[in-house]
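Reading group handout, session on sequence-to-structure problems. Before we discuss, look at one worked example. The prompt was deliberately terse, the way you'd type it at a terminal:

> structure Beta-lactamase-related domain-containing protein

The input record follows.
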Amino acid sequence: MKKRLWRVILFGFILMILIGSAGFGYHNYRVMQRSDPIFSSGSTKHIPARKLVPKTFVPRKVVTQQPKLSLKAKKLKQLLEPLIGGDQFVGTILIVKNGQPIYDQGYGYANFQKQGFNTAQSEYQILSMQKSMTATLLMQQVEAGRLRLTDRLAQFYPNIPGAKKMTIRSMLNMTTGLRIHNFSTRSLSGSGVVDYAAHHVQFLPNQNHKWSYQPVNYTLLAGVLQRVTHQTYYQLFNQHIIRLLDLHHSGFVMLAKRANWLSTPYHNQPFSDDSANYLHAFHESPANQHNELATGNVYMNASDFYKVSRAILQARFVSVENTQILHDAAGNRKGYAGGLYHEKNGGYWSHGVGYGEESGMMISGDGQNAVIMLSNYRRKDSMLKQQCHQIYQNLMQGMY
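And the output record:
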C-alpha cells in the first residue's frame, strides 16, 4: 500500500515538473514571438518571395466625423492653411509650445473606403525618424560599458570590407563608405536582416569619412546591439522605449493587425499627379517591413513620437553628457549625428519618406517646442519638410 502511494506521489511530482516545463517553454516562446515579429512557427523566411502577398494597412477603428475644434484650434488651423495648402495635406499635425500641445489635428482620410478620417490618434510609419531611437538604444550600451564609440566595426563583423576603418561613431554619423544595393526579397528575422546586410554590403574607400545618408549603417548597428546585449532589437525597443514611456500608439509595422489607428498609406498613379484622390493604396511588401529593421519599421502617432523625441533630448535615456556626445556632429558637413540633423538655431530636425508615407519633425534643443507632421499620402513634389520648417519658425517667433 505504501509503495503504491509513493508511486502515485512520484508520478504526480514528475507530471507537475513536465507541465511546469511546458508552461515555461510556452511562455518563453510567446515572449520571443512578441519581441521578434518573425519568430513564429509561421515564419516566412523560407517561402519564395512571389508567395509573400503585400498587405495594405487598414485601421481597425475609424472616426467618420472630425471632432469639433476649440476656438484657439480653429484660429491655428486658419493660420496653417496658407502653409499646408488647404486640403492638400493628409495626415496629422502636432504643435507643442513650452512642453504643452497647442494643436493636434488630423487632415484627410485614414482610410477612404471606410470614410474614416485622420485624427490625433492616427498612427503612421515614422520611417527614417526611427533612427534617433536606434542611436539612443546604442548609446545606452555605451553608457553601460558594453560598447565604446571608438570600437571598430571589425570587432563585431570582421568580414565586412573596410570594417577595420570605421568606428561605431562614424556609423552613427553616416561617414563610412558603406553602400548596399540589393535587399532581401524574403521576410527575415532581426538577425537575418543584419546577416543579409553584412554579406551584401559594399565599401567605397574613397567615400570613407565623407557623409552620405546610407541606412545600412543603422542596420549593422542593430546587429551590434543584438550582439552586445544578447537580445533582439525588438526586445530592446519594447523594453527601453515603448514600455519605459508607456506608449499606447506605437509598434512595429509587421504587427499592423494589432494597431487600432494605423492609417492606410496612399500614392498617386501617375506619380506626377499631385492631387489627393485616394485612388491607389500603397502595398508595402512583408520583406521590406523587415528590411527596415532599426531604420524605419516603427509606427507611432504624433503624440507618442513627440514623447520619445523629448525624452531623448531631455536625457531620460542616458546622461546629459552622453546625450550631448551622441548628437555631436563635429566634422559632419550635414550636421547629422545620432539620427538627428542639427538646426542653425540650436534645434534638431528629422525626415522620413517611403511606402506611401512621409514624416517630418522640428524640435528645440530642450525638447519643449516642436512641430511634427506625419502623413499617409505620398506625393512626388511634396513640400512637407519645408512646411514643417516654416511652421516651426513661426512657432519660435511667437506667431502661435
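Points for discussion. First: Residues 133-229 form one domain. Second: The CA atoms of residues 393 and 399 lie 9 Å apart.
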